[in-house]
Fold this sequence. Notes:
With 431 residues, this protein is of the alpha+beta class. Helix content is 45%, strand content 19%. Strands 1, 2, 3, 4, 5, 6 and 7 form a seven-stranded antiparallel beta sheet that branches. Strands 13-12-11-8-10-9-14 form a seven-stranded antiparallel beta sheet. Helix 4 packs antiparallel against helix 11 (327-339), helix 7 (259-267) packs across helix 8 (275-283) and helix 9 (286-296) packs antiparallel against helix 10. Residues 117-132, 134-148 and 427-431 have low confidence and may be disordered.
Amino acid sequence: MVSWRPIQGRVELLDPSLTSLTEVQDFFSEYRILGRGEASSATTFRFELAVGGRRRRVATLDENDTVFLGYSVHDLLEEMSGRFRKVELELGGEILHGPFDLGAVGIDEADFVAPESMSEEAGQTVEQNLLQNSAEDAQQDMENAKEVTCLPVLAFGDFPLSEISVLATRYNADIAALKVKSVNALVSTKGIHFRSSVFPRPNYALEIFFTDTQLEKPQLLVTRDNFQLAWNWEGQLAPFTWTDESQIAQNFVIEELGAGAVARRAVADVVDVSFSQIRQALLAPAALGVSQLVQALGLPEEVRQVLAGQAEVESIPGARLFVPQSASKAFAQAVAFEVAGEGMLESDVAKAYRKVYLHRPWLVSAVAVLQGSLGAGLLAYGVLAATSKRKRHWSVGLGIGLLLNAGSRILTTRYVRTVLAEAGMAESEER
Length: 431
């Protein structure tokens, strides 16, 4: 089964008298290419197509109403550039131009003479204005960045909880974590970009954040298998008009492009939510859409209130609160979550560690005693009874290593039990 992903494209008419927007739409209809598109201006046609495979071949409908892999992105651009004159084509990061017929232009010596108004003094004034504007723009960008760091954010995905205590300390922010089946929901009021802040980066993540202090312009970023899609609640492009002829074409455009593409990756196979509910939330107005999305993800009402600036993260029921603390305490909490199976360590490995080192302390002590005894014997032999220099060095080195290993194992086990108790997980680990 083909895994489709959307890509954006644009056709810029450099001379509308040679190529029209109608001809562009007729091209997609003729080749039965599935997609969305509409004119954003008198000379610009923006569109969205679905591609699949390593060669990024576009989704096309055959005469039997079967969707198949058609032209590759590069071949499609070549076909379009051969059809349209004096256009700029862009699709999936590739840019191509149609044939240009510039003709001859008369030029004489007067065209190479600079106007008298362009004096050296005027040139210096222009340069000063450009430098001043650049400085003002940079200052404004810096102020905007400072404001953005104080805006609420919701991250939903397979984030390791062992990293959250470190993030809370690093960004000096309170972070609420909610367990929703196999994934974690993280809520903060400091605008933390959670996915880029943890390592390794999660395979699946859904992040809602804001770009204005009035909290009226939400942004959604969905990441699945290192492929990202963004949504800003400003609507979607209209389906190509020819797709009205086929119900299969209509369903494909709804499910694989626009809001459907974002909703499909937001649902994926990780969370148990409804595709239709997510898509409906994306097509709703921005303020209502965020509320519906939070509800569709199965999160409590208090999460929506935090995103709306009406509550703090401490008010979220059933959430574990991570607060800024010293580096040593943050590290200890991270270790506790790793051992508890809520970190980067595989849960089976963490379970095996708990079973051997925490659930059977007598076994750890017995092995440490035997190992320590053997190490002490080797050390004594190397110091007192070894007959050669080589045997002495090997016995002393091996004996010291066994003693240190036995002692460190006991100390590490005690440390892990202590940090688990401080994190409130000791009872669950001793069962």
